[in-house]
Amino acid sequence: MQLKAENISFRYTDDGPFVLKDITLEVNSGERVGIVAPSGYGKSTLAKILSGYRLPEEGKVLLDGKPLPMTGYCPVQMVYQHPEQAVNPRHRMDKILNEAWQPDDELLRKMGIEKSWLTRWPSELSGGELQRFCIARVLGPETKFLICDEITTMLDVITQAQIWHLLMEISEERNLGMMIITHNMSLAKRVCTRIVDLTKLNNVHSHTHTHIHDHEHGDEDHVH
Amino acid sequence: MSTHTHTHTDKKRFEFNRKTFVTMMVIFAVVYLVGVGIWGLFMDPESYAVNYDAKFVSPNFDHPFGTDFMGRDMFSRCIKALSNSLIIGVLASLFSSFIALFMGVASAVFGGWVDKFVNWCVDLCQGLPHLVLLILISFMLGKGVNGVTLAVIFTHWPSLTRIVRAEVMQVRSSQYVQAAYKMGKTKWQVAATHILPHVIPSYVIGLILLFPHAIMHEASVTFLGFGLPKEMPAIGVILSESMDYLATGKWWLAVFPGLMLLVAVVLFDVIGDNLKKLWNPQSGNE
Ligand SMILES: Nc1ncnc2c1ncn2[C@@H]1O[C@H](COP(=O)(O)OP(=O)(O)OP(=O)(O)O)[C@@H](O)[C@H]1O
Ligand SMILES: [Mg+2]
Question: How would DSSP label each residue in A113-170?
Fold first, then answer.
């Protein structure tokens, strides 16, 4: 299968600046594509568009040539940067975990999810512990592509390694396509089969940059 | 209670005690208010009948709250009056809260001009002084039980509308609701598992905190003569009658009914505030 972004442009407000401009990018099943770019370059925005959380202003997101389904289980799932916002604080962990499917004990063990956590409330778990639930709950058999937006940023090195090891294993086993957004270049090199630099792909920042430079020059003029 | 690890036992025991205390307060307040409401509802009118032989008796064993200028027992009359006020207040608040629920949800769900219109209505209602609006509506509707009840209904929805609207908006845009849609949940499933459980606690607390307002405003409008009729036992009526005799030292005519109204209002606040503590998602919501 192939997940493709075709000439995507996006901005948050009708008259605001473009955050993404004319992006074309594809991820194939079994591929792990790393996306790197400095903060504010629209990585998270791209993730939201590819997983169908937001619609692009121009261009299309295609899954095997067809648009993403608007209802039913979406084959493209996303794991968020902030797990505490991604779970309902009024639900217990078992309800959260089983919202879409019933992960088996084997997966829970591999994810490092302890049985005793299942009866707790989200506020009683750490960010890293919560994130494991957020990952596990979207690893159902219907998931064909997984978009990971800085999912291990708040975890310690050992947990990070554990989770990436597992995700690599699953992606190979199930031929899952992944898009991995990270600031950590060495992580990207170890985990990804291909790395894309969004700064080169995104045509918006050429002029945003001149804008910033103009400002800097303006300031310098004052100083000198 | 949920299962706890051993390290948390002490904290949880404290938590448990606090929870029990808060629950007891709520139960006490509810029992008192419901008790007074029912007692008054089924009270024999004979118990506050006119008796010119016992005018202006100051508080004693037979008449704990004394008697008034027609020799009516003030204790029974106060209970009946408070009961009337409670029933009218609760009914009016309920209907008012339905308006709020409807307007708030519509405003958040449809957005656009619906949202603008609802906000405009809210601003308009909140912009005018509450009491003036109440008196106007009650007067236009011919005063009496209908007038004052409808006036209370039509003036008390704005604050709750705001709360409901904000809650629905917040939960709708939350990541976990959006994620639920992506996990194939339908609108109805999301409404039932995420949205309603999020909105209902605030709605119920808002409704409970609406009761004292409704009761106070009903009493005020009645006190000023634009509400419940003179012949009906009502706190507002009793207080306005007592004004004529206060200067002559008949203090009990105003003090006891006033206190009863105050206690009822405070107890509603107690219920609302404590439920807020109990339903805080951090402490779990069983
Ligand atoms: N909801 C929003 N409304 C308006 N602007 C937004 C919104 N979310 C992000 N932006 C803007 O869009 C741009 C790209 O944001 P985005 O979150 O996609 O960056 P990012 O590459 O993920 O950054 P980071 O590495 O810090 O996570 C930023 O300039 C940001 O201010
Ligand atoms: Mg981001």
Answer: --GGGGGS-GGGS-HHHHHHHHHHTT-STT--EEEEESTTTTS-HHHHHHHHHHHHHH
Question: Which residues on chain B are in Cβ contact (under 8 Å) with A120?
Answer: 2
Size of interface A-B (CB pairs under 8 A): 57
In order of start, what are the domains of chain B with their CATH numbers? 2-46+71-285 (1.10.3720.10)
Q: Which residues in chain B are closer than 8 Å to A82, comparing Cβ atoms?
A: 175
- Take atom 2 of ligand 1 and give the residue whose Cα is closest: A12
- For chain A, the helix, strand and coil percentages under 3-state DSSP, each to the nearest 5: 40, 20, 40
Q: What is the pLDDT of residue B92?
A: 93
Q: How far apart are CA B147 and CA A157, in angstroms?
A: 69
DSSP class per residue in B30-81? HHHHHHHHHHHHT--GGGG---GGGTTPPS-SS-TT-B-TT--BHHHHHHHH
**In whole angstroms, what is the distance from residue A147 CA to residue B161 CA?**
38
Q: Using the mean position of ligand 2's atoms as its centre, give its distance from the Cα of residue A22 in Å.
A: 19
B183 closest CB neighbour out of A80, A85, A100 = A100
pLDDT at B282: 53
A51/B182 CB distance under 8 A: yes
Q: Which domains does chain A have, with CATH numbers?
A: 2-216 (3.40.50.300)
Residues of A with CB below 8 A from B197's CB? 90
This model's pTM is above 0.90: no
Mean of pLDDT values over B137-148: 90
Residue among A14, A35, A43 whose CB has most ligand 1 atoms within 8 A, to mutate:
A43
CA distance A156 to B122: 50
